[in-house]
# Entry
Amino acid sequence: MDLISQEKLEHMTSMEKIRLILDKVKTGRIVVLESGLTPDEEVRLIEMTMTEIRVDEFSGIEIESYPSRKESSSFLDRILGKGFKRRMTVIGPANQLRTVEKDQYQISTKVSVGD
Amino acid sequence: MDVFKSIRMGLGSWLNRIFGKRRAKIGIYGPPNAGKTTLANRIVNDWSGDGAVVGTVSNIPHETRRAVRKEGLLINSNGSTIQLDIVDTPGMATKIDFREFMAFGMSEDEAKKRAKEATEGVIEAIKWLDDLDGVLLVMDSTEDPYTQVNVTVIGNMEARGLPLLIIANKVDLPNSAPSRIRAAFPQHPMVEISALEGKHLDVLYDAIALNFG
# Structure
């Protein structure tokens, strides 16, 4: 399992983050992002995951993040679509990570080894 | 998303709200088997008058694997009229395993073909997000609402400043619990319907006119 700090994520582009996550998950690692991804990065991660699904090799990812939480934001932030706090996210191979329960405050997952 | 695109979409959304745009392109989103195509068929049947259907429905996930657009539906509700382009999108998912389809009796070849088409469908649904004025997010009210598909679609609509209406579908089923959806996403409007039985669709059309008009 790899826990990636907010500091590291802040210095990466969206594409670098997505590539890092997919490379790790495809080798069976669970990735925990301290500050999560933006909504746009999340959807691009799903998009790229779909292009990399292969029969009997990689069936996709399990990704879990909390629902967004609004931060106080300026008029300009709202125009730019900003003002939402990024929250911790866990991502793993679909055949190894399974979400047991999730709510606004807690994510419970089950990890199987050796599938 | 680049800054200029964000500015364009954000400004567009504000201007639409200020000047009351009366035509909107609305995407129907949600996880597989939430009832998106059943709802799309209902809306089109109610307002096009030509008896057309948007797509076939099935209990096998990812029945819809290509987005289908139906243009120019005039919806009259509560004294206001809105012209809608409805886009029925394939179910969004983060994983697709062909073995899931074989459990429904498909051959291995059929299941693999469906899985391949389903991955393309998810990509198509994501691409459509860049070209919409709002979203109807369909959730199965018998299921846990905290799925990543729901969280991601809602997060994207919030970030883009676009209107979102949550549809708590399947309230005809005895184990439905739309209150769980309302508690999970209290910041967004929600209507409780049964697309299959046509229950509470008048409430849905009022909400569409209110939120997208």
Helices of chain B lie at 3-19, 36-48, 98-102, 108-128, 148-160, 178-184, 201-212.
